[in-house]
Amino acid sequence: MRPPGPGEGVAWITGASSGIGLALAEAHVAHGWTVAVTARRVEELEALSLRFPGRVLVAPADITDPAAVRAALAPLPPIARAILNAGTYERDTADTFTAARLARQVDLNLIGTAHCLEAIMPTMIAARSGQIGLVSSLAGLAGLPGSASYSATKAGLIALAESLRFDLRQHGVGISAICPGFVKSPLTAKNTFPMPFLMEADAAAKAIMRGLDADRFLIAFPEGLARPLRILRSLPYGVFFPLIARGTRG
Ligand SMILES: NC(=O)c1ccc[n+]([C@@H]2O[C@H](COP(=O)([O-])OP(=O)(O)OC[C@H]3O[C@@H](n4cnc5c(N)ncnc54)[C@H](OP(=O)(O)O)[C@@H]3O)[C@@H](O)[C@H]2O)c1
Questions:
Q1: Residue 230 maps to a domain
Q2: Can you give the residue ranges of the Ketoreductase domain (predicted)?
């Protein structure tokens, strides 16, 4: 399927006030797109719009509120590409696991993303064009130590993208599951454990744009982490568990 280009509508990026989302907005502007940016911190979004006059449409919303998402989208021009990136990570293990922590991450990472999806899919389906990227994580490809709740939400996003892809292809709409490894951002700045292959947000944004421009379904990077993880994932659990445990011991 031919992915949309900058002349065919705006790129809508959620979670664009910092980290990967901010870098994605900058990269899209650099490639000729007009971007619509959503997050809760309006002043961060406005600062971005001042840097790129006329190229950044500020559309603030808390994506856990479906009415706020609809209100933010209402004044925007047609969306050609939506990158649903807003999300959070709270570390947990079997010792610290609580349903409340899982619910907070489900509310934002899964249900918040679903509010965005339900707001844009009908228009894209009717227009028989458009492209959607769901920002999951390498931690969504497998349940990794220290991310029980987070992995559950990010695996859910991959399953959501896989299932929707069957239908969306019939309607001429593209969808991708985006699985970054460790990326420098306010989210990872609080991590105290080793983060192999830690990359800059700009490099992550470029990898995501390359994947979307090529209409790849799974956009998983960096290669040095994504490839071994995908191989391990396909092995029997008798091999998977000890190798992952050894590889993640900090
Ligand atoms: N950094 C990594 O290593 C890494 C790896 C894999 C996947 N990811 C995923 O990449 C995405 C971006 O993460 P990041 O590392 O760039 O973290 P970040 O800098 O903390 O960015 C998170 C973004 O989400 C927005 N957000 C949070 N709650 C929101 C809400 N209720 N409504 C609307 N926007 C909300 C934040 O803006 P406001 O606070 O202004 O609302 C912010 O713009 C997340 O989905 C994360 O899980 C990150």
A1: yes
A2: 9-186
Please choose, from the candidates 215, 144, 221, 180, the residue with its C-alpha nearest in 3D space to the C-alpha of residue 15. Answer: 180
Domain span including residue 45: 6-248
- How many structural domains are present in the chain? 1
Tell whether 1 is covered by a domain.
Answer: no
Q: What are phi and psi of 172, to 5 degrees?
A: 75, 20
Catalytic residue among 12, 89, 150, 182: 150
Tens of pLDDT, residue by residue, the chain (250 residues): 889 999 999 999 999 999 999 999 999 999 999 999 999 999 999 999 999 999 999 999 999 999 999 999 999 999 999 999 999 999 999 999 999 999 999 999 999 999 999 999 999 999 999 999 999 999 999 999 999 999 999 999 999 999 999 999 999 999 999 999 999 999 999 888 889 999 999 999 999 999 999 999 999 999 999 999 999 999 999 999 999 999 887 4
| Ligand 1 pocket list (CB less than 6 A) | 14-21, 39-41, 44, 62-64, 85-89, 108, 112, 135, 137, 180, 182-183, 185-188
Atom number in ligand 1 closest to CA 63:
32
> Does residue 60 belong to any structural domain of this protein?
yes
List of residues 6+ apart from 49 with CB closer than 8 A: 37, 56, 57, 58
Distance from Cα 239 to the centre of ligand 1, integer Å: 33
